[in-house]
Structures are given as structure tokens and as C-alpha cells.
Amino acid sequence: MGAPGPDPERHLRLALVGCGAIAQWHLAALRAAAPRTEVTATVDVDRDRAVAMSKETGAAPFGSFDDALAEGTFDAALIMVPHRLHEELAVAALRSGKHVLLEKPMAPTLDACDRILSAAQQSGTVFLVAENAQYWPEIVRTKAVIDDGAVGEVFTARAWHCASPMDQFTGPGHWRTSVAEAGGGVAIDAGSHWLRPLRMWLGELVEVVAATSRPYEAMEGESMCRALCRFDSGAVASFDAILSPGPAAPLPLFQVTGTRGELVIDVLGRVKLYDGSDPRGTVVGQGGYLQSYEHQIAAFEAAVLDGVTPTAAAEFSLGELRGALAMYRSAASGRWEAVW
Prior knowledge:
Number of domains: 2
Oligomer: single chain
Shape: globular
């Protein structure tokens, strides 16, 4: 017998913890793809933001997570706060018996991640890290095409992320521009969305050599990281995460090269296969970045309400953190550094 289907009678009460710009993206995904989830609490240290979000959702607003845990009614928390607060809030939620969906990275340090994972294991609740690239349609489709053998044995790939600052995420004075709040710059933050696909396609990251700089001076950490990455499959990939102070060209986001052909993911969400049959390539998939948030929240809802095992456990996200930390060590040492 197969696994039971979704139970329409069960519902998930969710707290939105952190009501900044990314909360709006998650809220849109909730409305589109999680019909059995209801937002019942909104939490932000800026209580005006919590109240504004509560008016959108009908939830009760709170100015602190402690107050929400004491007085709120919710089964799970979607935590979207500065990275330095991830451990404190995730552990508090897990110890209170709440399910947790925690924005990436799990935490800025591996020791903090260990403590969160220990709390999750003891809680027995669902704990996932919100690395939405795991559910990005173009990335999932590319993996399927690779697994089908369409490009042969993959030996190299390229991940390219170059964008201008967005005021609501990386404008001057935003917490993401602070090393103390974020734990680093683009590699530990947005870079994970480009490193996760490489790991999905090529295997585990084992060694990196990297260089960093600060073309966007409002960011205290690196606003450019360029790296070569070696994977346990033997493949080597280039990784670029750049926050450019000027406009950026719409270059392909990813290229994956194998012994029989190449796959390209462009900024329009198209997956194109170059296998020699058509010099213009053949579109074999179509998606969109924001759809990844929809698939992610649907997976969390199914994990909590139906016991469906997610495609990637929370522990898998440690690979992006280890990779970023190795890049930082390499930028300082000028040498290849093992990922551990």
C-alpha cells in the first residue's frame, strides 16, 4: 500500500516570526500553495510591522517571541530573523514543542547548528531549514535531466549570481550588510541558493579555493566571492556570488557540462539542453524562482500534517554553511581549503 494522501480535515496554525521583506514572499507562497495552513501569530521586535502583518493575515500580533510562546496559539513557527538570532529562537520554539521552518543558514556557526539540531532531535517535531533552492523548479528539472543521462557524465558546472542591491534586503543599514548580524557577506547568505544546486547535481563539496572583495561598500562582509569548488564526484564547478553596485547583465544562472552535452538555466526560468540536435538548444523545462517558495511551504505543510518525508533533511543545509566557511578560510589563506 502507498502512503496515505493529504488529510483535508487537519490544519496547521503558523506563527510568522520576523515580518520583514522576506515574510511577504513566504506569505504569498502560503496563500498559493498551503491551503491547510493558517497564520495565527505575527511576531516582530518592531511591533508596528507585526501589527501590519497581522492585518494582512488576521493573526494576533506580538512584539517578542517570548510573548508569542506564552500567549499565542500556533503549532509551528516560520522563523525569518537575522542569522545571529536563529539559534535562540529556533531552540526556544523546538523546546516548546513547535514545528520549525527556519530561514537559511541554519546558523552562522557549526557549533550553533549542532545545538539547534540537538534541540530538534529532543523535541520530536518537524524541523526544516528553508533553503528554497531545493524546491526551485528549474533546479529540480535539471537534476532529473542529468539523472536521465541526457548530458552524459557531468564533469564541470558554473553557478553565477550577480545582482544589484535591493533596498528591502541589502540596502545600506539593513541587517544583512552587518557581519555581526549575518555572519558574513554574500557567500553565507544569497550564495547558498547557488551552492545548493551544485550539491544536488554534483555531490558533496570537498574542497574550495576562493577570493573575495567588497565592490558594494555598504556591506561589511564580502560583496563578491569567486570560487572553484571540487566535489566528491570529481566534478569541478565555478561559483560566483556578487552584489554589484551597478547594473548587472542577464547572464545564465547555471551551466552544467557533461560528456554528451550541456544544460543551461537562464534568467527567464528556462532549462535548455544542448545535445547537438539543435544549435539553439531545446527547452526541456520552465519554472520561476518564486515558485520554489510555494513548493517549500507545501513540503513543510505535508511533513507536519501528513508525515511526508521532505526531499532534504535539515542537516543537509550544513553543506552550504561548511562551503561558505571554507571559502572564507581560503580567501584568508590564499590556498585550497578542505570543506569540513
